Amino acid sequence: MSVLALPRLSAAEFRARSWAPWAFVLTDVLALELALFLGCVCRLALTAWLPLELGPAQYRGLAVGVLTTPLVYFLSGLYPGYGLGAVERFRGRIYATFLVFAVLIGWDYVVQERQWSRGVLLGTLVFALSIPPVAEAAVREVLAARNLWGIPVVILGAGQTGRAVARCLKCDRSLGLVPVAILDDDPEKWHTLVEGTPVVGPLRRVQEVREDVKAIVVAMPGLAQERLTALLHDLSFPHIILIPKLFGVQSLWVSARDFGGVLGLEIKKNLLVPSNRVLKRAIDLTLAVPALMVAAPLLGLLALWIKLTDRGPAFYGQWREGADGTPIRVWKLRTMYRDADRMLERYLELHPAERAHWQRFFKLRHDPRILPGAGHFLRRSSLDELPQLWNVLRGEMSLVGPRPFPEYHLTSFPSEFRRLRRSVPPGITGLWQVSARSEGDLGIQQSQDTYYIRNWSLWLDLHILVRTVGAVVARQGAY
Questions:
Q1: Confidence band (pLDDT; 50, 70, 90) for 1?
Q2: What is the number of other CB atoms lying within 10 angstroms of the CB of residue 446?
Q3: Confidence band of 219 (pLDDT split at 50, 70, 90)
């Protein structure tokens, strides 16, 4: 059986993608200067209470100082950042930004004898921690959508593991690893497509891979040890990613360890560390207390709107399963008619086709139970979840975690997954809410919640919170 030619980037495509990292540098420069400008504006707004004279010399010095941040990003491996997940990029940016501003503050105290405004430095730091990551993520999405971001990757292995890798790289384009070909020794798989990627021949053809391919993914966990060792020895590529036979094991916060020439993997179970649980709780309280105080007037107005729409209570409490299986009463602004259960059953009887959708998502696009006006607005904006800040203050829930599902929803999951969910407090928002929203079926909910629990970290929580704000503002996928 003949084999296909190995795909390669054209000269024009290669040049276009080679400029992609510079787009991130320019984005960061503009975002950091914007952060400095906003820091100055915020400090000047306080001049009436805290007098300050901010001259051009100070501004120029700070403007030059913050421009060292992209250099630290580069030294941290964030440019171009191929293969780094969103959480790893976020953590790297936070560390690098804090390092730069610590040096700037030290420089100001030691060398300049406090010529710069500490208020401007603090304000700039706050904006530098938020604006550049958001701008960088937006630019990355635009470049990926136009095929201007990423490096070509060849996958070795067209079996189940290779298919999973190809699907992951296709779905998560922010990784910047673009599968262009798959090699496998099984002739029956040649001339086929695996997740849209062509299988072009046997493994020996890896020597024909062009120079524009910088990464190889070895996705053959069942390969004999001797052959795998020889294969890895012969591969001469800058980046070689080996996929082990460890499906179902956490993938974040896993570190390689050398045991006298033997490779070991250290897996950190972050949620089993008591200090991490205390830190998570401290962040919940730090954010939930001011959030509830700010939201209180809005909650009053929304409650009044509900009362004017439909007589009855404005708040709705439903018993759900919390950590360790403890029942908790989860509060929401009421978005449905009081006889919602009867209306749902009658609707599904009249529309049998909708029952399959309900059993898969436990949501309906045209839900007859939703209150007109107020109900639809609250659900699309997710403001109906605001009362759950009270559950967070009581310690029954966390800001981030698996959503507390009703019992009829939970019974659709395997018992093993339900036990895993009980190991952590439920959350107001979670991973599948910001990635799939209402389009996430039971399978996505289970896989995303499992990933979150096994890979929890402070950085993952912060990443989800930032994405939650974006998803709510854009009303992505909510109905």
A1: very low
A2: 21
A3: confident
Tokens of 82: 């191929």
The answer to whether 335 and 378 are in contact (CB under 8 A) is: yes
Domains of the chain: 20-145 (no CATH), 149-247 (3.40.50.720), 274-335+370-474 (no CATH)
Nearest Cα to Cα of residue 94 among 452, 458, 433, 473? 458
Least confident range of 33-47, 237-251, 295-309, 442-456? 237-251
pLDDT single digits (tens) 32-49 = 999 998 988 887 777 767
DSSP output for 287-323: HHHHHHHHHHHHHHHHHHHHHHHSSS-SEEEEEEE-G
Tokens of 391: 């559950």
DSSP SS3 for 125: helix
DSSP characters over 350-386:
H-HHHHHHHHHHS--TT-TTBPTTHHHHHHHHTGGGT
Closest C-alpha among 54, 74, 49, 25 to residue 124: 54
Beta bridge partners of 242: 218
Q: Which pTM value belongs to this model? A: 0.73
Please identify which residue in the block is written with the tokens 């849209």: 196
Closest listed residue to residue 371, CA positions, set 395, 338, 396: 338
324-354 burial, b at 16+ Cβ within 10 Å, e below that, comes to eeeebebbbbbbbbeebeebbeebbeeeeeb
pLDDT tier at 299 (50, 70, 90 boundaries)? very high
Number of alpha helices (DSSP H) and beta strands (DSSP E) in the chain: 18, 12
Compute CA distances 141 → 77, 146, 150, 166, 368, whole Å: 19, 9, 11, 19, 36
More confident residue, 478 or 216: 216
End-to-end CA distance of the chain: 51
